[in-house]
């Protein structure tokens, strides 16, 4: 596998892309994790090329989970409102149908 620096080496001819690559590389940190063979095989069986890809995906999912948790807590602590009727959901379906046909 090529290093991130090697992958961006071809971008030197294109200044904008090169600047992006260098900024991206500067923002990365390295973490070494040792996995037992059975976990390493599990990572491969789930379609990830490397355990690093899997760990990045897990971190993204955790971030999404935390955002959802915060929204749920915010909603739970908000004022109660009147119950929503079927007409509300009908109007949402209509809006979604209009947006998907654009």
Question: What does this entry look like structurally?
Answer:
The structure is a single chain. By secondary structure, this protein is mainly α. Helix content is about 65%, strand content about 0%. It is built from 5 helices and no strands. The longest helix has 26 residues, at about 50-75. Mean pLDDT is about 80; it is low at about 10-15.
- The helix/strand series, from N terminus to C terminus, equals HHHHH
Q: Measured on Cα atoms, how large is the radius of gyration? A: 23 Å
Oligomer: single chain
The end-to-end distance, rounded to whole angstroms, is 42 Å
| Uncertain stretches of 5 or more adjacent residues | 9-13
Largest sheet: none
Beta content: under 5%
Mean pLDDT: 80
- Counted beta strands: 0
User: Can you count the helices?
Assistant: 5
Shape: elongated
Quickly count the domains: 2
Measured as a percent range, the helix fraction is: 55-70%
Which structural class do you get from the secondary structure elements? mainly alpha
């Amino acid at each position: 596998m090529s290093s991130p620096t090697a992958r961006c080496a071809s971008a030197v001819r294109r200044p904008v892309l090169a600047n992006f690559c260098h900024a991206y590389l500067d923002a990365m940190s390295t973490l070494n994790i040792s996995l037992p063979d059975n976990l390493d095989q599990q990572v491969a069986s789930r379609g990830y090329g490397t355990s690093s890809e899997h760990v990045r995906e897990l971190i993204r999912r955790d971030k999404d989970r935390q955002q959802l948790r915060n929204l749920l807590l915010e909603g739970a602590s908000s004022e109660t409102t009147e119950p929503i009727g079927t007409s509300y959901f009908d109007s949402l379906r209509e809006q979604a149908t209009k947006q998907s046909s654009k």
